[in-house]
């Protein structure tokens, strides 16, 4: 019957029908706990639905802890049973202590993102009966040497050991020549100390590779695709992508989503449309604008705000979108269209995954990629005016 779903139903209605059917199959035992779901291509054929519609239905199941996803492997039923029972069991036993480990090389826009995630985790401590230690939130400085970083992290880990920390929410080190070595050292020590680990935001290996650790964060590829599609607006044409030098791996994932959106629209991405540099440098920003860029996906809100500021000073009218929905994005002279990070969903799934990892240490690693929300403001005002 699903082959003949009314094509006039909205995308959301169809997505919900698919979600409910998959949920019913899981609850009835047709897809057993631990079983791999059919591939997305198979589900597309079965439900006569597009890949994005299937992906959104699957994302909803994943955000509810009913399934987990492993890069390159597929989607597996967890049915939320582990998480629910763990929370119930924990309320009747001792309160575990979890720690945060977030060693950052520099103070930049990522600080806003990580602070929001940590605060959202902390807000769940009473509901799920755990304590949260913040000792591992540290700013190390751009010039920090390998030895300085390791010594500082060793101090934090020793403190966590003395406090009987059971699990750590870890945001890996980036933007350092020895980042890979330092991350490996940290994870090896945590494993040796028998402390569970849940990675937040990004993996310790470059996408599309996947490590052995649980990972919870934004679906950055889907976010990049959605924001680019918003600018394309069914009118295939040039769209530019702008990011700062030495951007995070999550930015590369957003860029991949940007490229996929262009390809799906029948537009071949051009390397000259992708700009990597210091957007705070007026000459760099002006070169982007003089190259003919009119519709621009920025890697995050801070990059977008810098670019918009230069555009205002030069009386230039362009369409700009960003990511994260930071607290300043509504305070600009031209409020920013952006992609809102699902902080609360990231936090909830991180906590449930941590309890699951403690109770079932041999489970396969979870990768939970959560969709955010498109927030439309007037930084795309010029298109709206032209098309209205």
Automatic annotation (TrEMBL):
Give UniProt keywords alphabetically.
DNA-binding, Transcription, Transcription regulation
Q: Which residues cross the membrane?
A: none
Note whether Transmembrane occurs among the keywords. no
HTH gntR-type domain location is 12-80
Q: What name does this protein carry?
A: GntR family transcriptional regulator
Q: Which organism is it from?
A: Cedecea colo
């Amino acid at each position: 019957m699903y082959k003949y779903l009314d094509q006039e139903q909205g995308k959301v209605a169809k997505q919900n029908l698919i979600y409910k059917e998959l949920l019913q199959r899981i609850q009835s035992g047709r897809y057993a706990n631990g079983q791999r779901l059919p591939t997305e291509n198979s589900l597309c054929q079965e439900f006569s639905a597009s890949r994005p519609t299937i992906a959104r239905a699957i994302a909803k199941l994943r955000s509810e802890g009913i399934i987990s996803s492993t890069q390159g492997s597929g989607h597996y039923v967890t049915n939320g049973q582990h998480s629910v029972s763990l929370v119930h069991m924990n309320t009747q036993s001792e309160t575990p202590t979890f720690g945060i480990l977030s060693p950052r090389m520099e103070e930049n826009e990522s600080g806003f993102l990580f602070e929001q995630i940590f605060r959202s985790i902390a807000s769940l401590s009473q509901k799920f009966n755990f304590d949260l230690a913040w000792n591992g939130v540290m700013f190390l400085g751009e010039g920090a040497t390998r030895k300085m970083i390791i010594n500082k992290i060793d101090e934090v880990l020793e403190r966590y050991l003395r406090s009987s920390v059971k699990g750590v929410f870890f945001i890996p080190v980036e933007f350092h020549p020895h980042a890979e070595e330092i991350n490996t050292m940290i994870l090896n020590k945590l494993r040796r100390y028998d402390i569970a680990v849940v990675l937040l935001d990004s993996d310790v290996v470059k996408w599309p590779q996947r490590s052995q650790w649980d990972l919870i964060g934004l679906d950055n590829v889907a976010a990049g695709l959605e924001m680019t599609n918003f600018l394309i607006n069914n009118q295939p044409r040039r769209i530019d992508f702008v990011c700062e030098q030495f951007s995070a791996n999550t930015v590369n994932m957003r860029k991949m989503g940007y490229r996929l959106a262009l390809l799906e629209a029948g537009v071949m991405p051009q390397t000259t449309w992708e700009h990597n540099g210091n957007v705070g440098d007026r000459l760099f920003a002006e070169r982007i604008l003089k190259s003919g860029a009119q519709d621009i996906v920025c890697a995050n809100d801070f990059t977008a705000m810098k670019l918009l500021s230069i555009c205002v000073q030069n009386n230039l009218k362009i369409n700009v979108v960003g990511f994260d929905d930071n607290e300043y994005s509504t305070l600009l002279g031209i409020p920013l269209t952006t992609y809102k990070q699902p902080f609360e969903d990231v936090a909830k799934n991180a906590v449930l995954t941590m309890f699951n990892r403690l109770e079932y240490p041999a489970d396969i690693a979870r990768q939970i990629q959560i969709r955010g929300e498109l927030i439309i403001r007037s930084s795309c005002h010029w298109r709206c005016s032209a098309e209205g």
